[in-house]
Amino acid sequence: MTLQIELTPEEEARLQAAARRNGVEPEECARRLLAEHLPVLSPGAQATLELLRAWREEDETTDPEALREAEAELAEFKEAMNAPRAAAGARLLYP
Predict the structure, then answer these.
(1) Residue 89, Cβ neighbours under 10 Å: how many?
(2) What is the SS3 assignment for 6?
(3) What pTM, to 2 d.p., does this model score?
(4) Res. 9 pLDDT band, cuts 50 70 90
């Protein structure tokens, strides 16, 4: 994959300095930084993401009544999750 990004002059200077310190070109330095700091997907992660995508597509609707019901269910769920936390003085999950 080729990625083109705009860096500020400060970011560019920092990347150039890091590349010099590591004896590599700036492009390689940036690639290494990304490889070191991006989370690694577990073997099953892609399958899980695909399953979630399929479920989302399966549930898609433009029916106003279905959308209203889904919003009401979500609001009820959030309230049910927040109520015991509020009673305990804990941080709310859904502020």
Answers:
(1) 6
(2) coil
(3) 0.45
(4) very high
